[in-house]
Design goal:
The protein is of the alpha/beta class. The protein has two domains: about 190 residues, Rossmann fold; about 120 residues, Rossmann fold, CATH 3.40.50. Helices cover about 30% and strands about 25% of the residues. It is built from nine helices and 18 strands. The strands form five sheets. Strands 4-1-5-6-8-9-12-13 form an eight-stranded mixed β-sheet, with helices on both faces. A four-stranded parallel β-sheet has the order 14-15-16-17, sandwiched between helices. It is globular and about 60 Å long. About 50% of the residues are buried. Belongs to the asparaginase 1 family.
């Protein structure tokens, strides 16, 4: 018998009709009972909270992080599944992944159809997630959706309502779930985890996202600094570009101790220092860090997680650069070990 802890957090997978729209209300056991459990898998449910994931806060994500670590403190547990709303699933999965050094997987899943939908995807996605939780090792935190297994890092929600909601615009799935079996396709490099924040960590790390566009000025960027942001993700155009006014604002912010990271609003591809005139060349010279292929939501999580994990400003700079590195070096347990697939 293999043992999985399911941590329930709400989302569409736990939603029912409320008269004028859907909202999360079902407990984790109700979600579990809506479908089948793989043979020889025993499940323990933890009801952590029940919210639509668009309402999540850093406090919710810290509670989730510690719930995952509490579950894995039991050596009898083979893996953890987190049921989560799809709106911010990519953020929570990456947040957990940045602190996850255990060989056992943490599998995030959800649904695009509510729990009571006759043709819904909740039961199938949960079954696949449970199977993945007992079928892999050293895969970190992953997202299982519509029969595909994706690494948390780099995976985003790419469609608002389609059943195949998630994908990695700059990578391929780690594997697929078909006919009651997980078939693995490739190895996943692991990074050394960030130090785990204390349970009572004061949530004082405000990190904002500001988008560049034609006609943009520095008003919103400066407003974020004035509001007390300790980090800002600038969403550039193209390969991470803005204009001279915003580059000057970045320089001022970095000088005052604010961490600035540059992502892109383009769906696929990496940020790259190609252009001056306020482009990524100038933004990097002003002290901003380029986020590689991380899209804005996960770039923000990288900054936030680093600020929560490391209090010293200089150490935080070093850790953030490591987290953003697109070519990680060896990390503990970096070799992928697949129980039911290729590579041991």
């Amino acid at each position: 018998m293999r043992h999985v802890v399911v941590i329930s957090t709400g989302g569409t997978i736990a939603s029912r009709w409320q008269g004028d729209g859907y909202a999360a209300e079902a407990a984790g056991q109700e979600v579990l009972e809506a479908g089948a459990v793989p043979e020889d898998v025993e499940v323990r449910v933890v009801d952590l909270f029940t919210v639509n994931s668009s309402r999540l806060t850093t406090d919710h994500q810290l509670r989730l992080l510690h719930a995952v670590h509490d579950a894995l403190a039991d050596p009898e547990v083979d893996g953890v599944v987190v049921t989560h709303g799809t709106d911010t699933l990519e953020e929570s999965a990456f947040f957990v992944d940045l602190f996850h050094g255990d060989r056992r997987p943490v599998v995030f899943t959800g649904a695009q159809q509510p729990l009571d939908a006759a043709d819904g995807d909740a039961a199938g996605n949960l079954y696949d997630a449970l199977l993945t939780a007992v079928s892999g090792r050293d895969i970190g935190a992953v997202i299982v959706f519509a029969g595909q297994v994706f690494a948390a890092r780099g995976t985003v929600k790419r469609h608002t309502v389609d059943a195949r909601a998630f994908g990695a615009p700059d990578g391929q799935p780690l594997g697929r779930v078909e006919f009651g079996r997980v078939s693995w396709a490739r190895r996943q490099p692991r990074r050394a985890p960030l130090p785990l924040p204390e349970r009572d960590t004061a949530v004082a790390a405000r990190v904002d996202i500001v988008m560049h566009h034609s006609d943009a000025d520095a008003v919103l960027f400066d407003a974020a600094v004035a509001a007390g942001a300790r980090g800002i993700v600038l969403v550039g155009t193209g390969a991470g570009n803005a204009n001279p006014e915003i580059a000057d604002a970045v320089r001022r912010a970095v000088a005052s101790g604010v961490k600035v990271a540059v992502s892109t609003r383009v769906a696929a591809g990496a940020v790259a220092p190609l252009y001056t005139g306020g482009g990524a060349v100038d933004l990097a010279a002003a002290g901003a860090l380029l986020t590689g292929t991380l899209k804005p939501g996960q770039a923000r999580i990288a900054v936030l997680a680093t600020l929560l994990a490391v209090r010293d400003a200089e150490e935080a700079d070093v850790e953030l650069r490591r987290v953003l590195d697109t070519a990680p070096g060896p990390a503990p347990a970096s070799e992928l070990y697949l129980v039911d697939g290729v590579g041991h």
